[in-house]
Each structure stands twice: as C-alpha cells, then as structure tokens.
Amino acid sequence: MSEEHKLDKFHKHEALDRAWIMFQMVNDWLVDHPYIEADAVLSPMAGAASQALWNLYQEIGAREEMGIPRCDVVPLPVINMPEESDLMRSLSRRAAGGGE
C-alpha cells in the first residue's frame, strides 16, 4: 500500500457504510423486483448477491480496529443453477415466443 493510501480510523466506517448501501440497493432494486422475484433462476442469484453483501457488512463490522482480521461468517448458500443447456433452451424458447 502506498504512503498516500495508508488506512486511518475512518476507512473501516467508510467501508461499512458502502457495504450497507450496496446491500440496501441490491435488496430494494433487485431482490424485491417483481421480474426477478418471479424468475426461478434470477431470484436465487439476487438472493445470493444480497447474502454476500450482508456477510461482507457483518464481517467489516466485526473486525477489530486495524487489528486482527476475523472471518467466520456464515457460508453463502449453494445456488442450484439449471444446466447451461437447459437454461439456453429455455431462453431460446422465450425468445421464440414459446414461453417456458
């Protein structure tokens, strides 16, 4: 880290604030969006993004001031994604106007 980028006592607070803002944005604008809520593929992806930001927020908040790092947050859930070929077939059907 260069001399001009040395951490000070406000960096943790700033990072915590940014993580909270991004968590709220993902929840308000993605997780709760009707299109994403209704899609079996997109909904768990948005949920995983939200969970990752929540874990980041919690991890930042739990760390000691510039001290010993801590990393025992809850692991992210596994997202069971459809096989790529199934997903591509579904998207092709949608594009052709055939729905699911």
Rg from alpha-carbon coordinates: 19 Å
Strand residues, percent:
under 5%
Extended strand count: 0
Sheet having the most strands: none
Average pLDDT, to the nearest integer? 78
Which shape, going by the Cα principal axes?
A: elongated
Count of spatially separate domains: 1
Distance between the termini: 51 Å
Which regions are unreliable across 5 or more consecutive residues at pLDDT < 50?
none
Determine the fraction of residues in helical runs and give it as a percent range.
Answer: 55-70%
Task: Give the count of helical stretches.
Answer: 4
What oligomeric state do these chains adopt?
single chain
| Order of helix and strand elements from N to C terminus | HHHH
Description:
The chain is mainly α and 100 residues long. It has one domain (10-68, 80-95). The chain has four helices and no strands. Helix 1 (9-31) packs antiparallel against helix 3. The protein is elongated, with a radius of gyration of 19 Å.
